[in-house]
Amino acid sequence: MLPRKRVGSPADLDALIVMLCADQSHFVNGAVIAADDGFSA
Predict the structure, then answer these.
(1) Ranges of H-type helices in the chain
(2) pLDDT per position in the chain (41 positions), as tens?
(3) Secondary structure string (H, E, C) spanning the chain
Protein backbone atom coordinates (compact mmCIF):
# COMPACT_ATOMS: atom_id res chain seq x y z
CA MET A 1 0.00 0.00 0.00
CA LEU A 2 2.96 2.37 0.36
CA PRO A 3 3.73 4.29 -2.86
CA ARG A 4 7.47 4.22 -2.15
CA LYS A 5 7.40 0.59 -0.94
CA ARG A 6 9.03 1.54 2.37
CA VAL A 7 8.26 3.21 5.68
CA GLY A 8 9.68 6.70 6.04
CA SER A 9 12.49 7.58 8.40
CA PRO A 10 13.12 10.77 10.37
CA ALA A 11 15.84 11.69 7.86
CA ASP A 12 13.13 11.99 5.19
CA LEU A 13 11.98 15.18 6.92
CA ASP A 14 15.41 16.88 6.83
CA ALA A 15 14.69 18.99 3.74
CA LEU A 16 11.37 20.17 5.18
CA ILE A 17 13.00 21.18 8.46
CA VAL A 18 15.78 23.08 6.67
CA MET A 19 13.22 24.86 4.50
CA LEU A 20 11.16 25.92 7.51
CA CYS A 21 14.27 27.18 9.32
CA ALA A 22 15.44 29.24 6.34
CA ASP A 23 14.89 32.99 6.22
CA GLN A 24 12.96 32.59 2.97
CA SER A 25 10.14 30.73 4.78
CA HIS A 26 9.17 33.77 6.86
CA PHE A 27 5.84 33.96 5.03
CA VAL A 28 4.82 30.39 6.01
CA ASN A 29 2.53 30.79 8.99
CA GLY A 30 0.04 28.34 10.44
CA ALA A 31 0.43 25.81 7.63
CA VAL A 32 -0.22 22.10 8.08
CA ILE A 33 2.33 20.15 6.07
CA ALA A 34 1.31 16.53 5.69
CA ALA A 35 4.24 14.11 5.59
CA ASP A 36 2.12 11.14 4.57
CA ASP A 37 3.71 10.03 1.26
CA GLY A 38 0.73 11.26 -0.73
CA PHE A 39 -2.08 9.46 1.09
CA SER A 40 -3.99 12.70 1.67
CA ALA A 41 -4.10 13.65 -1.99
Answers:
(1) 14-21
(2) 667 777 888 998 999 999 999 999 999 999 898 887 777 76
(3) CCCCCCCCCHHHHHHHHHHHHCHHHCCCCCCCCCCCCCCCC
